[in-house]
Task: structure prediction
Amino acid sequence: MSTPGEDVPAGPGSATTPDGPPTRTAGGSSVPVIELRGVTKAYGDTPVLRGVDLAVHEHRAVVLIGASGSGKSTLLRCADLLEEIDDGDVLVDGEVITEPGVRPLATRRRLGMVFQAFNLFPHLTVLENVTLSPVRVHGVTKAEARDRGRELLARFGLAGREDEYPDRLSGGQQQRVAIVRAIATRPRALLLDEITSALDPLLVGEVLEVVRELKREGMTMVITTHEMQFAREVADEVCFLHEGRIVERGPASAVLGAPQQDETRRFLARLLDARQG
Amino acid sequence: MATTGGAGGPGTGGAGVDGLPGDGSGATSADGGPVLSRQEVRRAAKRRRSLRDRLIAAVATVVVIGGLLALLLTSPGWPNVRDTFFDVDQFREHFPDVLGGFWLDVKLFVVIEIGVLILGLLIALSRITRAPILFPLRLLATVFTDVFRGVPTVLLVYLFGFGIPALELSGLPTNPMICGGLALCFSYSAYVAEVYRSGIDGVHPAQRSASLALGLSEAQTLRHVVLPQAIRRVVPPLLNDFVALQKDVALLGIVGVVEAFRQAQIAAADQFNYTPLLAAAVLYLCVTIPMARGVDVVQARSRRRRGAAGVA
Result:
């Protein structure tokens, strides 16, 4: 993890931005990679999202904060079509993907997701976890996928772990594998769902370092987290979710430094208390 | 080493631990009785305890088995039983025939088991499918498991073995061995389907989410993520069903298949001596006991693996 800086020039565009270098999108930069318009979602009679609007532009990182149950994870799952939304629209690259006729498969192939509990496949080795989707879904040859998988694993400090099974690795290593697995498909954007919440505090740093690295390379990301310091570092925009609505949004310095809404202030104070207590 | 341990006293645990790996514990306890470290005392006590436990277990085993043997050998009918069930000459005479019959058992077992593994999986998959077009299949699979689990296997063998040939439909098998084997296959498939299904249910839904998020289709998710994990989980219960099936192949004897049990019955009827049946029992044990031990080994291994996963 101490050497990512040196690796950046080696293959910055090819690694994470599949459709070419960042400059290409100069004309199309007005179209967000991911956009939510008035999205609502309820589980039974319990509303989870009550009309969420969000736009994530290319190379930008949006951090969602909020208490448990505020709808952060549901929002990410809806964006990846793992949950069906009740109303509103989700767009990827300007295309509405929540039309009833649109197949969810194609969308999921364009986005990558990393989960709180890693969700690595325990019956597959580290490298097989990473190459499964490129080979089975994206039609990459096995040899090519393995080469690229090894290269990505090495870049994130996992060289030599390729043939181990996930349960042999530490939580931090497992989560780094999960991130590599998600970017191995060259997604348009990455959805990170509380990826450090299940980790030993000592292992959080190594995982966040990977995200910082991805941010430097220009990966478009939507991140939910309780790590406020980290949010300050990587967020181009912070959104505070409260009871299924985004009640405050803006640059990290504003939302976290000088919150305007009572709910935001209360949440941040409670979080601070919890850290100190 | 012994002196440092004594001088350091119980308070300085570090010194004792440092010296530990090198010491020959037997030698120390032999020469320095009074200056044994606490660790050595504990180790000696542990040894005594395990020795005592083993002794008790051995004595108890001898008493129980001896008692049972005594009960058997002193029972009033024992001489009679010995002559009709444990006749060495009879055993020697009929063993080759029974063995020949048993070879048929083994062949039938292998063929039926392969059928069971495939049919059971198909039924399990039919039952978990959510596609509306496949609803009739799901219904059929449910009825299949309910019926074939609900009817005694021996009855199924009878019904199939005599019933199907009696239909006289062209295309249907008329060989009682095939028909009876089909009954066994259906009956066990119903059980095995439920075993598969419980394994599939046991795979955490997060695995499915992760797979779908990677862009795999439902079918690919089932094939590459869910089923491999489910099948690993159910290997021990599946092996259990293997053992049961191996024995139940003997049921085909009742529709006239001359396998080990039937062969032994024929031999027994010949001279009113039941020793051939014992020979058949021994042969079954020769296969089922190793299988049962195999199940134990597999179960222990999967328990260890789960334990390791739990720690991580």
In short: Residues 126 and 133 of chain B are 11 Å apart (CA to CA). Residues 34-74 of chain B form one domain.
